[in-house]
Amino acid sequence: MGVEFAPFARERGLDLTIVHSSAWIRSDPALLRRLLQNLISNAIKYTPSGRVLVGCRRHGKSIAIEIIDTGIGIADNDRQAIFAEFRRLDDGVRQAPGLGLGLSIVERIAKVLEIDVLLVSEHGKGTRFSVSVERATAKTAPLSGKARKPSAGAVSKLDGLYVLCIDNDLSILEGMSGLLTQWGCTVTTAPDLDTAFATLDAAHRPPDIVLADYHLERANGIEAIHALRQAFGLDLPCVLVTADRTPSLRSETEAEGIKLIYKPVKPAALRAVLSATHARQEAAE
Fold first, then answer.
1. In terms of pTM, does the model score above 0.90?
2. Cross-strand bridge partners of residue 116
3. What is the CATH number assigned to the segment(s) 155-284?
């Protein structure tokens, strides 16, 4: 990651130090990498001067991967707010542009990996994020010259699942696409139904499952799902994503055979729905 972030740090006049470690950990490498990328990127983005340090500490049976900066810091009463989607603090808005998705993605990935992300910060002086990961022994390392066969837990059960996401908020689409891609899915995103049909036509294949937000520009999510099922079959698996918890909407989706996931979306619940769809497809092949 040093090579990846060094140009960004140099551009901002920062000293980026990544301390290498001989420790081994047990985790999903793609998801953990995405989580750390977001934390390091945030640290550089919100550090006007000074340094960003990335290193590891051993704590019993775990390893703490730490990202420490000398940046603007976070006030005590803002520590929960920074993990909310699209929420940016005033200090952060003044310091750097962005959508406010970085730390919400960190929190979602941490829940999927079942790991803790700890925060220590002093407003105006800097921040330390600590990611606690299970230690592994060196025996799990691949032998020189030999490819290590991945364990069953390390292989994504969603590899190749073709997901269509429809949402009129492009920043939400960006965050969802990033998360699903890390799970091994192939993702097509669209802000509306017309764009969805156009992108699917260009891809020359129907989606395996549809994730549609309820509130769209020219139609609601249920209407979009009806149109997609008319085109690709009434058995097309579909999920409606909404913050609307009214019994009438729940009854309507149940009658239509549409899965319902409430906002804020819990990655574990979303992954369970996608995994069930993927398992049914593999059984049918």
1. no
2. 132
3. 3.40.50.2300
